[in-house]
What does this fold into?
Amino acid sequence: MKSNLLNINALAIKHRSQILAWFDQHGRKTLPWQHSKTPYRVWVSEIMLQQTQVMTVIAYYERFMLRFPNIESLAEATEDEVLHLWTGLGYYSRARNLHRSAKMITQDFQGNFPDNLEQLQLLPGIGRSTAGAILAIAFEKKATILDGNVKRVLTRLHGITDWPGEKKVVEQLWALAEQYTPTKRVADYTQAIMDMGATLCVRGTPRCEICPLQTSCSAHKDGLTKTLPKKKPSTKLPIRQVTLLILQKNNNLVLLLKRPPTGVWGSLWSLPEIPGTPSTEEIQIICQERFKYTIKKIFLGGKFRHTFSHFHLDITPAFLSIRETKSKIMEANQQIWYNLLQPETVGLPAPIKTLLAGIST
It folds into this structure.
C-alpha cells in the first residue's frame, strides 16, 4: 500500500508539471472573470459555470457584473432583478442562492468574503468543489476541486471503469484530486485542470493527439476514451403534460403568476397552467371558474417539449383573449399584467420568455 501511494505521488508530481506546462502555452487566460480578479467575481463565475458551458456563461456574466459589480449591490437588489438577469441560463436555484449568500455575507460576515472551506460551505449553493475553486483561484490557497471536467480527466487518466457517481468512486477521485493539487501555483493548476477537461479531454471524442498526458493515460492506451467515464445507468425520463394559459387583454398585456419559491421555476414569473391537455371547452370553463374572466376567443398552439434533468414537460399553449374586468385572481403581489411592449424586470423561465417573444413579434 505504501509503495502504491509513493507511485501515485510520483505520478501526480509528473502530471502536475505537464499540466502546468501545457497551461502556460495553451490555457485560457482571457475569460472575463480572470481579469480584475476578486473573490466576488470568482464566486459568481463559479456558480454560473455549474453545469453550464463557458461560452454560454460569458455574456450572462458580463451583464450580471455590469448590474451587480459587488456584493453590496447584489445584496440590495430584489430577487426579481437577479432572476431577470438569469433568465435563460437555467438552474434558477443558483441565482436565488447567490442572492441569499450576498445577503448573508453583508450581514453575517460584515461584507468580507469568507476565505476558508468551512465558512464558504455555509453559504447556499457552495459545496466542497466550488469552495475549493474559490479558495484556490481567488485566494491562492491550497484547495482541491472536483467538478465534471476534473472527474473526466482523472477517470480517463487512471482508467477508472466504474460510474463516477458511485460513492466509492467519488472518494477515490477526491483522493486523486488532492494528490494532484499543488501548494504553489494553485490558481494556475486549478484553472489548468478545468481547461484540460473543457478543451482537450472533452466528452465524446477527446483531443488525445495534443494532450500532454497522452502517454500516461490509461484510457488512451486501452482504447477506452469513448467509453470512459462510464455513463450513469440510464433511466427513462417520465413525461408530464401541461397546458399554459396565455390570458391576453388590450392586445399587449399578458397575465403572469409568481411561482412558489421551491420546485420547478421557483420564484419565477410564469403563465397560469392546467395539468394535462384539456379541450378548448374545458379550458374555457376552468378559466371562467378559476379566474372569473369572460373568454372572448381561444385557440390552442402547437405542443412543444421542454426537458428538465428529471422529466420531460410537454407544453401546449392556449391563447385566450379576455374581456376587461375588475376582478382579482389573488393578491396583487402574486400576479402582474406583463406588458409585451414595455417588459418588466422580472425573471422568466426560458419557455415562457420564448412564448411571450412570439406573441410580441
